[in-house]
């Protein structure tokens, strides 16, 4: 890893977070990678490190970031990912961004992100609750395809008991990022798939407004709700994205607010979110679609499976997380 980054030279640093710094590296076989290197005293620890390895070594989807390898020796902990040349979604929504994303591009990113999370909720076995969906955890490749990243806080969804009943939630210590955190999860400590739906809804509002979830004491969900109820929707839309189809923007904003509803049961499942986004995409003018490139719709299964929070049962408590994944089997991925 030292060779790949010229001994972690400052010129190769591309980001920084609670875990440590992220570097751009080139492996001996020429593959360009992102190397996340833990720093002493980092906010994330051994548990999150192992969770990320064990989850990403078995999760594979075009809208999830790929783990190439890891290093855990000589006091160093590093995760090696495919390199995302266009950084994070948060970077592109910043006021400092010189080339703002068009509405069509934002909608495409929203759909890709939703499909990645849909895979976690319905196709991963067992399903996974991400628990930290936010704009800085959605990465963009060279073609601006969205890829969900950072699984350090993820938890396994409840599995059916002997009677075949799926518990409604996982009871767990509250973790996540302020502004994105599902208020019901915060109050009850009950984590469900709808907690991810809420967080993604906040990301949708960021895409539409360009604002951060919490800024100058203002909460984006509250501010957009007020604008919506006052028929002032377009006053909060990010003017930097240029022209846009008003009907598509309104439908997207209404979906975002529905995702951010206070009551868990009133929020859509991720399958319903994907279906609605595809519906909005099909409403877009052909010229806008051509400018950003096609998206895969209906080719991936988007039939509405039951939400993991839809079957009723008594409260269920579990401390199983990614660390206990695959019954303690050592991940098949090989360190590089």
Automatic annotation (TrEMBL):
Using the record's annotation, list all stretches that form the Protein kinase domain. Answer: 8-285
Where in or outside the cell it occurs: the entry states: Membrane
Listed PROSITE patterns: PROTEIN_KINASE_ATP, PROTEIN_KINASE_DOM, PROTEIN_KINASE_ST
Q: Which Gene3D superfamilies match?
A: Phosphorylase Kinase, domain 1, Transferase(Phosphotransferase) domain 1
Which InterPro entries does this one have?
Answer: Kinase-like_dom_sf, Prot_kinase_dom, Protein_kinase_ATP_BS, Ser-Thr/Tyr_kinase_cat_dom, Ser/Thr_kinase_AS
SMART domains noted in UniProt? S_TKc
A GO CC annotation recorded here is: membrane
Task: Enumerate the residues binding ATP.
Answer: 36
Q: Which UniProt keywords apply?
A: ATP-binding, Glycoprotein, Kinase, Leucine-rich repeat, Membrane, Nucleotide-binding, Repeat, Serine/threonine-protein kinase, Signal, Transferase, Transmembrane, Transmembrane helix
Under Enzyme Commission nomenclature, its number is 2.7.11.1
Query: Has UniProt tagged this entry with the keyword Glycoprotein?
Result: yes
Any keyword Membrane?
Answer: yes
GO molecular function term, any single one: ATP binding
Family annotation (CDD domains): STKc_IRAK (cd14066)
Annotated catalysed reactions: L-threonyl-[protein] + ATP = O-phospho-L-threonyl-[protein] + ADP + H(+); L-seryl-[protein] + ATP = O-phospho-L-seryl-[protein] + ADP + H(+)
> How does the entry describe its membrane topology?
Single-pass membrane protein
PANTHER family, sorted: OS01G0750732 PROTEIN, OS05G0423500 PROTEIN
Family the entry assigns? Belongs to the protein kinase superfamily.
What is the protein's name according to its record? non-specific serine/threonine protein kinase
Q: Which organism is it from?
A: Castanea mollissima (Chinese chestnut)
